[in-house]
Design a protein that fits this description.
heterodimer, A: 413 residues, alpha/beta, Peroxisomal Thiolase, Chain A, domain 1, 9-stranded mixed beta sheet, two-stranded antiparallel sheet, B: 178 residues, mainly beta, OB fold (Dihydrolipoamide Acetyltransferase, E2P), 3-stranded antiparallel beta sheet
Chain lengths: 413, 178
């Protein structure tokens, strides 16, 4: 089945640090309804298959899949959940359509991370139980607002087997990787700070962004070290929000009243979980992009890619990822940034949406947030930040700490 | 076994079971972790109102004008028509047993002497097969049957917290017929 596959519908909610007014169901309903209206399809008749991307521990349900169909229009229809980032969902939709079994497939990913009270513990729970967990984690359990024991009982001491006083927050892993990246490439902390400044500024032109700010490199440099060299402002803050996409095969896409944006290639890759064995240069992104470029027929990404949305959940990650994707030479992404090449007016506009630093860390929706910006730019609907002459864009996401996994999608007009 | 030893097998060859004591005393290699996972879900407008009304001793539903359903527990959108629902409607606190089970094991899989009666109730005033799961009380296990008419027994107003357990259980509805 050699059918081309297009993005024919996009929808998203506003992104907010907290969303106490809605449940995850209403959040999903809003984004999906917008995507179906954008595509001009009725989910109850026209959509053949539904995919959501969610991680049970973030949601707070085992088998979260069961709680999904109603709000995305999938009741009594083919529906499945991908436990991973939204770009993995796009890949699955792509493959389903390629089989010829499905013509129209929807993909949804969201974050309702504000429902999770013990965020640090859930991040920690992704760590190896023997080698990594014992050094990490909070010293004492907190009693969280909303838990039945709040505020009466004293916090419980943490369980485990190592010296409790030496425990550190699981985000320390970013400190390890950034240290290694700076030393190896000669990139500076100031250059990473500049990523934060750029992205938070870009976010002013993204209506759904929650962390837009007009700050300076000094502001970032003066924010306190959390895991040296990672400073407070180098970290993307958490947000709630939802994004939905509708994909269709070429024949169906051409019947719809929408400009199709082609999903030309995608790829994904996972590294070893052994931290000491990883090269810490985002090989997962390199391998995933090699796969995607090959599928899309891209031989010179630096020349052919007009716009990039790369994972920037920590500031250094944007530069590291640009190099892994072959969009900058090793150690040279910082220089491109300083020269203004990554700005909206530059030769490789990067994270024009504001990225995770400007929009917020939306967890499994991160890849779709990146893809949303690319599709919006390719459609020419990006408003003030609209680029001229964009034909090919790349969206890349990382599964987040502590993973060495990620995916890439390439879109074109 | 004796002959195996004579033939020079190492003495651990037959193997020994790992005992609970071995685990407790850390005589065997294992690793253990207890994650702390706590959530506080925002319930959204439909379920929030539903829970508030339970506190008032009432059951409230949402209506979809397109498929004419009275939906309980209420939702802000109709999953069949895929559109927002249209209005609130108080319904009764009586209903019909759709299905039931008599449970003889507690949460820890221990035998319970007095079995617990549990089932699904369609609430009167809602569309057919719209309701929720709850306990049954004030009846013998052998009385409970599909199609039985039942009525909610509420906690005293002061003890209600805005939870599904503000209803203690459903009891037989007198004069409710079979």
């Amino acid at each position: 089945m050699n059918r081309r596959i297009a993005i024919v519908g996009i929808g998203n909610t506003d992104f907010n640090s907290m969303t106490p007014d809605v449940s995850w169901k209403e959040l999903m309903f809003e984004a999906c309804q917008k995507a179906y209206i954008d595509a001009g399809v009725d989910p109850r008749k026209d959509v053949d298959s539904f995919i959501t991307c969610a991680e049970d521990f973030y949601e707070g349900f085992s088998i979260f899949d069961e709680f999904v169909p109603d709000q995305i229009g999938a009741t009594l229809r083919p529906c499945c959940t991908v436990c991973g980032d939204g770009i993995y969902g796009l890949g699955n939709a792509f493959m389903q359509i390629k089989t010829g079994q499905m013509d129209v497939v929807s993909v949804e990913a969201h974050s309702k991370i504000s429902d999770l009270l013990t965020f640090g513990d859930v991040v920690l729970h992704a760590y190896d139980p023997l080698f990594e967990k014992p050094v990490s984690g909070p010293v004492e359990r907190q009693n969280y607002v909303g838990s039945p024991s709040y505020p009466k009982e004293k916090p419980k001491p943490i369980v485990g087997s190592s010296n409790e006083k030496n425990r550190i927050h699981p985000y320390f892993l970013a400190g390890l990787e950034m240290q290694h990246y700076l030393k190896k490439t000669g990139t500076t902390e100031e250059q990473c700070a500049q990523v934060v400044v750029k992205n938070k500024k870009n976010a002013f032109n993204t209506p759904y962004a929650d962390y837009e700010a007009n700050i300076s490199v000094e502001d970032v440099m003066n924010s306190e070290y959390l895991f040296k060299p990672v400073k407070r402002l180098d970290i993307s803050p958490n947000v709630d929000g939802c994004i939905a996409f509708v994909l269709a095969d070429e024949k169906t896409a051409k019947k719809l009243d929408v400009e199709p944006i082609w999903l030309k290639g995608f790829g994904w890759c996972s590294e070893t979980p052994w931290l000491s064995t990883r090269k810490m240069n985002a090989d997962y992104a390199k391998m995933a992009s090699d796969m995607a470029y090959k599928m899309a027929g891209i031989t010179n990404p630096k020349k052919e890619i007009n716009i990039a949305e790369v994972d920037d959940r920590f500031s250094y990650k944007e530069l590291q990822h640009l190099e892994a994707l072959g969009l900058a030479d090793s150690g040279k992404a910082g220089k491109l940034l300083e020269d203004g090449e990554l700005d909206i007016s530059g030769s490789l506009p990067t994270n024009t949406s504001g990225g995770s630093l400007g929009v917020g860390n939306c967890f499994e929706a991160t890849g779709l947030q990146k893809s949303l910006e690319i599709v919006t730019q390719l459609r020419g609907h990006a408003g003030k930040k609209q680029l001229s002459d964009v034909d090919i864009g790349i969206a890349q996401s990382w599964r987040g700490i502590p993973s060495g996994s990620g995916a890439v999608a390439i879109f074109g007009r | 076994m004796m002959s195996m030893k004579k033939e020079g097998y190492p003495k651990y060859a037959p193997g020994t079971h790992v005992s609970r004591k071995d685990i407790r005393n850390k005589n065997k290699t294992y690793t253990w972790w207890e994650p702390e996972v706590q959530y506080s879900w925002a319930m959204g407008p439909a379920i929030s109102r539903f829970l508030q009304e339970l506190k008032n001793g009432k059951i409230i539903a949402r209506c979809c004008n397109k498929c004419d359903r009275v939906i309980v527990p209420p939702r802000m959108f109709c999953e069949y028509c895929y559109k927002p629902t249209d209005k609130w409607l108080y319904i009764k606190d009586t209903g019909t047993v759709e299905t039931f089970s008599i449970a003889y094991l507690d949460g820890d899989a221990r035998r319970i002497k007095d079995p617990i009666l549990i089932g699904v109730i369609s609430i009167d005033g809602a569309s057919p097969q719209h309701g929720f799961m709850h306990y049954f009380g004030e009846m013998k296990p052998e009385e409970l049957h599909i199609g039985m008419k039942v009525k909610a027994v509420w906690k005293p107003e002061k003890e209600r917290t805005g939870a599904i357990t503000d209803i203690k259980y459903f009891k037989p509805l007198k004069g409710g017929g079979k």
